[in-house]
Design goal:
- The chain is an alpha/beta fold.
- The protein has three domains: about 130 residues, Spore Coat Polysaccharide Biosynthesis Protein SpsA, Chain A (Alpha-Beta Complex), CATH 3.90.550; about 130 residues, 3 Solenoid (UDP N-Acetylglucosamine Acyltransferase, domain 1); about 130 residues, no CATH class.
- A hairpin with a 2-residue loop joins strand 5 and strand 6.
- The protein is globular.
């Protein structure tokens, strides 16, 4: 079977995180959603996403295609229901299309055709990411699920004698990982340490927690789960219920809570974010879809930051702050709660962060990892720059 993970209306609501990727390339738990599906089904997987992203995430069609909602995380019961679908059928929950089987000619029109397909009602539970805060809100359940998926039938590398552990049977250490003089508490959820990752001396970790491949917890780091540190990242200080997608750094002291950071982000030393309002009221977050701040239903909600954005030392982010793609924030005081893509400045004011300057920095950042900023990546960032022009009223 040919599997295609498709974007629905949630792609709009998940901006700025989805500005640079399909919904299924978001990380929640240990794995990205697309990686979860690769472990759960047999067959090739591609994406149906926004036109300007399709060059980086090419669509592959076949005579018969299993379309799966890109925000949907797999489970055994859900996979069973999806696999039983026949051509022309759609697995639905109310108005929400979870999956459908269609011909090649109908792939690109899945969101239009969904209501004309023969519906099969799904009554089981499922996890779907719809809004940015769904990522950290559901990260604990996602870590639990991914932990079972990745470690079932396998044996962990031994935890060294210099460490202290509670619930050691729920700690899994991949090959090449280094953990020394750390305190690990897996009684509240599993702890996964990826390949060639490192937990430095004095770090204290309370699960659920995932430190993905080649990432580092720096000395005396304090982690409250559910937290995920994506591949190639470095973190220090205090982190609570947050998700860093990969190749992003919070390498020094400071607090990050109830937050999501995209890729290639960097928080300067002693950066702090508020995740609780002084009056304990519900937090509102900027919505690109409605063009205003919307209710999250949450009392705890911190920072949402798009790819390639950075901030200087001692930056203070207020409760419920959204930062777009490739923004650069610095200076004293609290910057505004919504910072559009390609903004340069802080509480004292902003100016446009021009594309040539942004590309120059991105090239240097990727070069440190032996990577290059491709023409395709430049084209994606250019589209984001153009789209967010409407919000840069500096």
């Amino acid at each position: 079977m040919n599997y295609i993970l498709f974007d629905d209306a949630a792609w709009q609501d998940l901006r700025p995180l989805t500005y640079t990727r399909p919904v299924a390339e978001m990380r929640v738990g240990i794995l990205t959603i697309s990686e979860k599906w690769k472990h759960s089904v047999k067959g090739s997987i591609s994406h149906l996403t926004q036109d300007y992203l399709q060059a980086k995430y090419p669509l592959v069609t076949s005579h018969t295609n299993m379309m799966i909602n890109g925000g949907l995380c797999p489970s055994p019961r859900l996979c069973e229901a999806i696999s039983s679908l026949k051509k022309g059928q759609a697995l639905v929950t109310g108005e929400l299309v979870l999956a459908a089987v269609v011909d090649a000619g109908d792939v690109s029109r899945i969101n239009e055709l969904a209501r004309t397909l023969s519906p099969v009602e799904y009554k089981g539970e499922f996890l779907k990411i719809r809004f940015p805060w769904d990522i950290f809100k559901n990260n604990g359940a996602a870590i639990e699920s991914d932990y079972e998926l990745l470690t079932r039938g396998r044996v962990s590398q031994p935890l060294g004698e210099t460490n202290r552990a509670l619930g050691a049977d729920r700690i899994f250490i991949e090959e090449g990982a280094v953990v020394q003089f750390a305190t690990l508490n897996a009684s509240t959820g599993p702890i996964y340490i990826g390949k060639d990752a490192e937990v430095m001396e004095g770090s204290i970790v309370r699960g659920p927690f995932a430190l993905c491949d080649q990432s580092v917890l720096k000395m005396a780091c304090k982690i409250y789960g559910p937290t995920t540190i994506g591949p190639g990242s470095k973190v220090g200080g205090e982190i609570n219920n947050s998700v860093l997608w990969g190749n992003s750094n919070k390498a020094h002291d400071g607090f990050l809570g109830n937050s999501v950071l995209g890729e290639w982000c960097n928080l300067g030393a002693d950066t702090n974010n508020s995740n609780l309002k002084n009056n304990y009221e519900e937090v509102k977050l900027w919505s690109y879809t409605s063009g205003r701040f919307v209710k999250t239903g949450l009392q705890f909600c911190g920072l949402v930051m798009g790819d390639h954005s950075k901030c200087g030392i001692n930056t203070m982010f207020n409760t419920g702050t959204v930062v777009g793609v490739s923004a650069n924030i610095f200076g004293d005081g609290f910057p505004r709660n919504f910072i559009p893509s390609f903004a340069w400045g802080g509480a004292a004011g902003f100016q446009v962060y021009t594309l040539p300057k942004a590309f120059e920095v991105a090239r240097k950042v990727l070069d440190r990892q032996g990577l290059q900023l491709s023409p395709v990546d430049e084209a994606i960032l250019t589209r984001v720059f153009e789209h967010d022009q409407q919000w840069r009223n500096f």
